[in-house]
Amino acid sequence: MLELFNRRARTMEPAELVGRIEPEDVISLEQRWLPPMRAKIEELRKAGTLTREEVTRWNVADAHWEWPAKVRDRVGQLQWASHALRCGGDTQGLIFMNLVYKCRLPQQLKQHMVYVDLVSTAPWNRPRLVPNPMYGGVGMILVTEAIIRSLDEGFEGRIGLHSLPGAESLYREKFKMDCLGPDPACGNLLYFEMTPQQAAALLPSTAS
Amino acid sequence: MNSKHRPDRQWYARMIQETLDDDFIVGPAFDAKPKDAATAEQPLTVAFGLLVRFSRRAKRLSVEELAEKLSVEADELQHVERDPEFRARPRTISKVANFLDLPVGEVMKLAGAAVSNDASFNANALKFAAHSDDMAALSSAEQEALKSFVRYLRNQE
Amino acid sequence: MSTTAKKTLTLVLSDTEMDVLDSLSSEKSLSKTAVLRQALRLYQTVDIRQQRGEKLFFESASKEKAELMLL
């Protein structure tokens, strides 16, 4: 049973991981997530400060990601796995993972991995965007789910992802992933991979 | 969701506390300018939506009536007509094409379900898409535009 | 939830097909089921893109020739 940290009440609250992003999650995104995110983008645009740095500072890089279109396009495709994380009666997080990509890190070149394509958390959970964020742990649970999926698929915990600016230390230090440097094919975002050894060190060994 | 690899509650609680102020958003970097590919597709789907809307109104049908005739969801038809970012299902697109007696392949390109690298096709669609004023009955200018575009599409077969 | 419900399929394969499956399974360190799952995902992915009018090419190591895959 999964739980999120309610930052206001300072307690853990039960959360539900849904096996696939559902229409109600898309509705939640369109009606409740996007308005405050778009409002912030508009605010920056009007102030003439709509730059990558400012967008990073306020943590609204995902305002234009078009989740609804992606959900519609990907829903019947086996190469894409997705989850929604729900808590407190609403959708708190979304993730898309790809199941056919291969590794680039030399020591696991062309091995199978789970690639983390998109992760978003509801705007009211973001400390950089709102003064009183609601839930903590949404993104952490979702990225961990990619590692678990990788283990379940027989990929030994290998995952890959491109890190947005400002998040590099998270993947490098806390998840202990290897960094392959900026990827020109992905807007020069830093590309990270996790090895089976790193996955084993991060997740406790499960009793048989 | 069950997995034998899932850590226990304590692990999650600890990890959440350790990463409480970290940023887990993953995806493409912010780009102040929209991608060329995205903007190129938009005029085509606008033309598709307009084609459906004008044709429907020319036949004096409501969205619900047309949806019923085509055996598709009224909701989807509404999105087709109004939302340039919406991508209709191939099944719906081919039903629309058949209903309007138009070559399916050409309509697929218009609806964003197939690729169009044809500059002349794109230009014709763009020209038609410029007629997107909302009026109850088709003006004679709109009727002309519709007839002309439909003629063009049928000639592509 | 429909994505977690599982169904069973019994496959009949020729000796050669089984050899290939065994060989891939061993090379990729994946179970035979995992290999077939990956094959299904890839097959669908290629199929969807071709239906959209895209073409599949192979590029040689020297990047000279791009061979169109007529799949």
In terms of structural class, how would the helical and strand content of chain A be classed?
A: alpha+beta
| CATH fold description of chain A | Aminopeptidase
Tertiary shape of chain A: globular
Distance between the termini of chain C: 34 Å
Per CATH, the architecture of chain A is 3-Layer(aba) Sandwich
Which chains have the largest interface? A-B, 63 and 33 residues
Question: What would you report as the Rg of chain C, rounded to the nearest angstrom?
Answer: 16 Å
- Structure annotation, total helices of chain A: 6
Q: Indicate the mean pLDDT of chain A.
A: 93
- CATH superfamily (homologous) name of chain A: Gcn5-related N-acetyltransferase (GNAT)
- Main sheet of chain A: which strands, in order across? 6-1-2-3-4-5-7-9-8
The class by helix and strand makeup of chain C works out as: mainly alpha
Number of domains of chain A: 1
- Give the N-to-C terminal Cα separation of chain A: 19 Å
Shape summary of chain C: extended
The Cα radius of gyration of chain A reads 17 Å
